[in-house]
Amino acid sequence: MSSFLYRLGRAMSRRRRTVFVTWLLILVLAITSMSALAKGTNDEFAIPGSESQSALDHLKHVFPEVSGTSAQIVVVTPDGESVDTPENREAIGRLSQRIGGYDQVALAADPFSDTVKDAVSEDGHAAIIAIQFEVAVNELKPEIKAKLESDGEQLRRSLGHGIAVHVGGSAFSNAIPSLSPTEGLGLIIALIVLLLTFGSMIAAGMPLLTAIIGVGVAVASIYAMTAWATISSTAPMLAVMLGLAVGIDYALFLISRHRDQMAQGLDVEESIARAVATAGSAVIFAGLTVVIALLGLSVAGIPFLTTMGLSAAFGVVVAVAVAETLVPALMAFAGDRLRPKAADGDSRHRSRNRFARFWVRVVTAKPLITLMAIVAALAAMAVPATQLRLALPDNGVEESGTPARSAYDAIAEHFGPGFNGPLIVTADVIQSSNPIGLVNDLADDIRDIPGVKSVPLATPNPKGDTGIIQIVPETGPSDPRTEQLVRTLRDKEAYFNDKYDTTTAVTGITAVAIDVSSKLGNALLPFGILVAGLSLVLLAMVFRSIWVPVKATVGYLLSVLAAFGATSWVFQLGHGADLIHVQRVGAIISFLPIILMGVLFGLAMDYEVFLVSRIREHYAHHGDAKAAITEGFAAASKVVVAAATIMFAVFAAFIPEGSATIKPIAFSLAVGVFVDAFVIRLTLVPAVLALLGKRAWHLPAAIDRSLPVFDAEGDGLSQELRLKDWPSPDSHESISAAGLSADDDRGVPLFENLDLHVPDGGVLVIEGAGVSGKSALLYTLSGRVTTFRGDLKVLGQTLPQHVRAVRSTVALIGCANLPGPLDAIEQALADHAGIIFLDDADAVLYPNARNRLRKLLATRTAGSSPVTYVMTCQNAGQLADILPSDGVRILSLDAESSKYRA
């Protein structure tokens, strides 16, 4: 992949004008499509297959009058005055009759009508005009809502005497998030961080420009897709948050690498190509992990959450595409103006290195104490998460003063919180000879259930086949006691069936919300297992290690739990809620945990790869595990700090003025990013690596052979470019190695600092009695083991980057275990293998095989190409009479020192 990205970076640099104009045209096209096609978002949460949703869908067919959205006009009189006066009765009755004739209105119930119950409060100060629509909230015409608001104002003026009139309800919920000037603070902070990082306005402004273009394309496209798909209002806002955060960070990675390379003297075009190949590979990996995690939201099986994940993933894909194409083009436009000034660059580099080295020395001086302190602190921070309750938002979390919130509060105050979240029980009465009596009997039974405040409506539909019973709970929609009431009503379904021979179901917006929250809660464990397992596999591919992925995954889980705890502490328990303008303390929005887990997974893997890959790179070249931590940390920490600070600022900017839906999500992501970057990656990770030492970089051979190599930092290309003409431009060596080293599971060296040059058609014999290093070296040279240090080229291919190419052109034959090893050698020659590796070659030295093996070893060509032989044995002397007379090199392994001698 890094080779492809190298070519892509060079192409984007040369065609920079075309690339820039193309992205502008894409942005214009997306905005035009949004203007022409967008139908608006839809915040009606549904959960297909659940009892509540199935019953609600059934009602749309048999009783459409009660299946649409609703509204309320609440009339409240001052203290000492009754709402039930002749003047009020007459005015409210006229208004109810007029509204009942409006388009899309199924009914408007006069609270003083003899057929309406519980529409006047027990204290006599409030009355509700209940309005039922024939359509869902997203299909309601704006002019109808405007007329109702006007009617409410006219009623208030006509009643006078300090009477308040509130127009609200589900139809007036203002769940659609919108941007405010506060979000711009995040961009300002990002600009400041970028200026401090780069010391250049051009370099600092470039990530902001590209991120804004990417977000514009993504969000406009998402809104355009509402013409064909149902998309919640949270989806585009999540895409804005993620698009800005990752878009800025991805550009930061590329520009930082480009400037570092230019400071070393590379010309502009070559530096751009290498930056895209190296840092661009990390961008691909980071974006891929975020996208996979967001697509994993579909495991919950809830359509609106799946759509949300797809929308956010699309925003990340666009950010990656912008980073890999537009950023290189803009870097080419900037040219040498991005090249750091030598004196200033050296000064900043020394300053950053001094602090980074000081910090890493502090956290690794007593690594076990560091580890225990962090785990204990994060565990304490996670304690409030044990009280986490999930619920979907209702009008009670709307901003104070909005119509929906004012009506919600007035109803809760005068009628009780349950009136804001009524339940509906449906009953199949088609077989009954007295549907009205049956529905009334059911209503009487339900009134006696604990938690039921009243049953204001019980009636069959006009066809007489379905009855509905409206239930007002004693508690609010998000109260756990309301959830318990739903469970109680469902437990009664068998009782109702036995007693009345009718099938019942519990539904309504409140019941649907409870079912959605329950299913989301149940999806957390499988989703957590998915992302944790995914991180183990991906990081094992990148770092060729067992302990590094385990450490990274445990750190990610600690970050998630800490973010859960902090969110519960503020939004559920109320500590500090006023500081960030939380409108109502209570249950956490039900899809927050799964979104947090998905997004934070991708970001955590991003920081892990960027930091640990630098540490691994230094270890691979020098073999000193302790020094690798210090040098790798010093090289990578500045970019991780800048990226995490920007990410934190962007998320935090959505908190103060964010909507009730976005605010807790932004808060949890800000806390999660801060903890994961600064506490886990920049503190815990060095401490754990210091504890593990060389063991951190070991991967069992069986797993190593089965896992593909994923070069997430593009280091492979850097190594290829460095080794392009090594050992010489016209080399005729089948195997070239320099400083080749590898360790066993305990960190004990198997072989060390081996320099090896095997010519085409040569023979290499590796001997060692009773030691495992010889087979480990054989497996390394044949591309079966990739966890080694040093430089290695086999058949002109750099390892471990091209293990697949090497494995396809060499043959590895285990002579001690494989039946018919000599037949396998003949087959390898027939297949034109470039190198034939024989493990335990002395296992076939029985009399009948010696002559045959001698002849095969003498055959050092396959067609017109030379064939190289590499073999291991206990004692090379046993092979003396069958080895060719020329081109043979013997390596002997010293079991005590793990050194080879020629």
- β-sheet strand percentage: 5-15%
Radius of gyration: 35 Å
* Overall average pLDDT: 84
Shape descriptor:
elongated
Largest sheet: 6 strands, mixed
Strand line-up across the major sheet: 16-17-20-13-21-22
What would you say this structure looks like, in words?
By secondary structure, the protein is of the alpha+beta class. It folds into four domains: 2-38 and 178-387 and 515-697, no CATH class; 51-172, Alpha-Beta Plaits (2-Layer Sandwich), CATH 3.30.70; 423-507, 2-Layer Sandwich (Alpha-Beta Plaits), CATH 3.30.70.100; 723-901, Rossmann fold. Helices cover 55% and strands 13% of the residues. It has 27 helices and 22 strands. The strands form six sheets. Strands 16-17-20-13-21-22 form a six-stranded mixed sheet, with helices on both faces. Strands 2-3-1-4 form a four-stranded antiparallel sheet, with helices on both faces. Helix 1 packs across helix 10 (303-334) and helix 20 runs antiparallel to helix 21. It starts with a helix and ends with a strand.
Q: Briefly, what is this?
A:
55% of the residues lie in helices and 13% in strands.
Topology, element by element:
Elements: H1 2-14, H2 16-37, H3 51-62, E1 70-76, H4 86-100, E2 105-109, E3 126-133, H5 142-159, E4 164-168, H6 181-198, H7 201-224, H8 234-263, H9 268-295, H10 303-334, H11 342-365, H12 367-382, E5 390-391, H13 403-414, E6 423-428, H14 435-447, E7 452-460, E8 466-473, H15 480-491, H16 493-500, E9 504-507, H17 509-543, H18 547-572, E10 588-589, H19 592-622, H20 625-652, H21 662-692, H22 701-706, H23 715-722, E11 733-743, E12 749-759, E13 763-767, H24 773-781, E14 789-794, E15 797-798, H25 803-809, E16 810-814, H26 821-830, E17 835-839, H27 847-858, E18 861-862, E19 865-866, E20 868-873, E21 888-893, E22 900-901
Helix pairs in contact: 1-9, 1-10, 2-7, 2-10, 4-5, 6-7, 6-20, 7-8, 7-10, 8-9, 8-10, 8-20, 9-10, 9-19, 11-20, 11-21, 12-18, 12-21, 17-18, 17-19, 18-19, 18-21, 19-20, 19-21, 20-21
Organism: Bifidobacterium catulorum
Subcellular location: Cell membrane
Main location: membrane
